[in-house]
Structure formats: C-alpha cells, structure tokens
Amino acid sequence: MLTVGDYYLKLFPKYHPSRVLTVIYLPFALGTMSILAYNESRINTRTRNIAGYLLFFAGTLMLLVLDFATSGKGGAGPFVGICLIVVSFGVADAHVQGGMVGDLSFMCPEFMQSFFAGLAASGAMTSALRLITKAAFENANNGLRKGAQLFLAIATFAEFLCFLLYAFYVPKLPIVKYYRAKAAKEGSKTVSADLKAAGIHTHSEQGEDTKLIERLNNKQLIAQNIDYAMDLFFIYVLTASIFPGFLSEDTGTHRLGSWYIPVLIAVYNTWDLVGRYVPLIECIKLTSRKWVMIAILSRFLLIPAFYFTAKYGGQGWMLFVTSFLGLTNGYLTVCVMTVAPKGYKGPEQNALGNLLVLFLMTGIFAGVTLDWLWLIGKKNAF
C-alpha cells in the first residue's frame, strides 16, 4: 500500500494517507502480536500462518473491490473503508510475521536471513512493479488509477500464492520436516499440525508418554536478550520515523515530479534488500553485541542528515541518504535476527522469535508516531 502512496495521496491529499494508514495499522498489529507472543506455546503455528496469509489475500482483494465500487473517488467514506482494510492487514501481519519468525528461529540461521531478505525483496519487487505499472499508464486517461489497479490485482494473486506455498509446499520440504521433528522432540507443541500435514505423527499423538521438557519462560528469555530486543526497537524507531511518511510528504518538489516518491521508495527497498545479503559475507558481519548496539545508535545521526538534505540538498543527496537508510536497516536487522536465537532449545527459540518481532513492531509504532513531528512548522499540516 505504501508503494501506491502517490495514488492515495492524490485521492486523499488532506488526510496524510502514508502517515495515517501506518498509524492505524500498527496498534492492531502490535496488540495482536502481544497476545500471540504471550500465548505462543499454546498456538497452532500452521493455523496461525494460514489465517494470516488468507487475511492478507482477502484484504488486498477488498482494496481492489473498494476502488472499483467507489470509481476511484476520494472523500471520507472511501478513506474509512481503506482504514478498515488496513486494520485487517495489521492483524494479518502479526499472525504471519511472528509465526514465520518463530518457526524459522529453531531452524538454521540461513533460513532466517532468507526470510528477512525475502521481506526486503518483496519491497523491491513491489517498487519495481509500481514503477512499471505507473509508466505503462502514464499517458493514459486516469492513468495513475489504472496503474494502481493493475498493481493491486497482481499483489492479490501474489498473496494467494503465498497461502498455497505455505499450506501445501513448505511442510513437505525434507529439511523443514527435519527441523520441525527436532523441535517436537525438544518439547515444542506448536509444530504438531505442520508435521501432521507432512505425514509425520508426534509421540504424543501416538499415545506415547513424553517427559515434560523444561524451558525458559518469556520473562527469562527477555532478560537474557534485552539488548537484542532493544536493538530491533532502535533500528525500526529510526527507520519508521523517516520511511515512509517523511519521504512521501516532506522532501519537496524536484525534477522527477510525480516519479519522485515512487523512486525514493524503490531506492530504499533496493538497498534494504542489498543490506540483508551483506551479512552472508562473514568477515563483515557484526556478531559482537556491543558493536551491534553502537552501530544501531549511530544511525540516529540520519535524522539531522535527512532534515538538512530536505532543506538544502538536491534530489541526488536525498537519494544517497535514503540508500544508506535502507542499507543499514537491512544489514543490522539480519545481524540481530540470525544471532539471537542461537544456543536455545526449539520451544525457546520459537518464543524468542515471537518476542523479538514484538519489539520490532513496537519500534515501528514508536517511529511512525514520532514521524508526525516532521509536520511541526509546516503550513497547512492539518
């Protein structure tokens, strides 16, 4: 939705859609994630993820239906409808992101890197798709709307494909079955439905006695990993205070015209993707907890950098600092998420993965709230 922000900004210029939609989405994502993280050990991960993917599919489809039903008109009514759909996205994101990270936490670190690289790749691909659809209809009558409709149609198909892949393909992969069976032996109950879908029955299902395996509770896991949790909070409070709101509304007018916002978002997403692959080069991957925290705190220097670039710099400088924002966001996220779960049992890794996503989402929520401070001093801000 942020990728088609230029379309929504045209429809609802007085409502600050890039900021408002994010602020609406996050409380529901955060609230749902808090409940799921607290009850993580009792929740069927397969049902949780499938429900999330189906909710994403239904929400994206409804965006398309709403646009056709209102003939692409602005106003309070359609905006409220979009806001309600965004609420469903928040709930879906809490189901899927926490569920997938928890699931991958007890597998090999490369899977975690691939998942977070996939998140960035989806951003880069949607940005590229948005640029293509925008260019295809640039000179057509009502071209901005037609480009957005085509974009949403393709996105709806992609969400349905995610559901099919997770429900029917992933559970049958040999390496996934191996790690889930291993987690079940270590006492994890969240993987039983996934194992059953793959044709594997756990000891408890077969009526065999299983010993209760002790594990650290959530409070103990947070106490041991509070620095990693705060790392993710600080990464995303900084990123979300700049992207997407500031980049969408507060960077002025430049030679790129209506292309400026989509290009900035594409640049951020591309470098975010690059950053998530950089840790694969072991010699430049940060593993020291101390130096990871120092690197993350130093990113706050980007706030004055963006302020002065927007006020005095040209579009070239803005593209440069946006690239650095994306690169460091991706790099540091992967550095934290691939190291934190090491050394724990399967159920503990699953719980820790959910808790880290909770802190990540809290950081995003704090960031998009602070993002409104950029409007101070602007004329006609509200």
TrEMBL record:
<feature type="transmembrane region" description="Helical">
    <location>
        <begin position="149"/>
        <end position="170"/>
    </location>
</feature>
<feature type="transmembrane region" description="Helical">
    <location>
        <begin position="259"/>
        <end position="279"/>
    </location>
</feature>
<feature type="transmembrane region" description="Helical">
    <location>
        <begin position="228"/>
        <end position="247"/>
    </location>
</feature>
<feature type="transmembrane region" description="Helical">
    <location>
        <begin position="20"/>
        <end position="38"/>
    </location>
</feature>
<comment type="similarity">
    <text>Belongs to the SLC29A/ENT transporter (TC 2.A.57) family.</text>
</comment>
<feature type="transmembrane region" description="Helical">
    <location>
        <begin position="352"/>
        <end position="375"/>
    </location>
</feature>
<keyword id="KW-0472">Membrane</keyword>
<feature type="transmembrane region" description="Helical">
    <location>
        <begin position="291"/>
        <end position="310"/>
    </location>
</feature>
<dbReference type="GO" id="GO:0005886">
    <property type="term" value="C:plasma membrane"/>
</dbReference>
<feature type="transmembrane region" description="Helical">
    <location>
        <begin position="50"/>
        <end position="69"/>
    </location>
</feature>
<dbReference type="GO" id="GO:0005337">
    <property type="term" value="F:nucleoside transmembrane transporter activity"/>
</dbReference>
<dbReference type="InterPro" id="IPR002259">
    <property type="entry name" value="Eqnu_transpt"/>
</dbReference>
<feature type="transmembrane region" description="Helical">
    <location>
        <begin position="115"/>
        <end position="137"/>
    </location>
</feature>
<keyword id="KW-0812">Transmembrane</keyword>
<keyword id="KW-1133">Transmembrane helix</keyword>
<feature type="transmembrane region" description="Helical">
    <location>
        <begin position="316"/>
        <end position="340"/>
    </location>
</feature>
<keyword id="KW-0813">Transport</keyword>
<feature type="transmembrane region" description="Helical">
    <location>
        <begin position="75"/>
        <end position="94"/>
    </location>
</feature>
<protein>
    <recommendedName>
        <fullName>Equilibrative nucleotide transporter 3-like</fullName>
    </recommendedName>
</protein>
<dbReference type="Pfam" id="PF01733">
    <property type="entry name" value="Nucleoside_tran"/>
</dbReference>
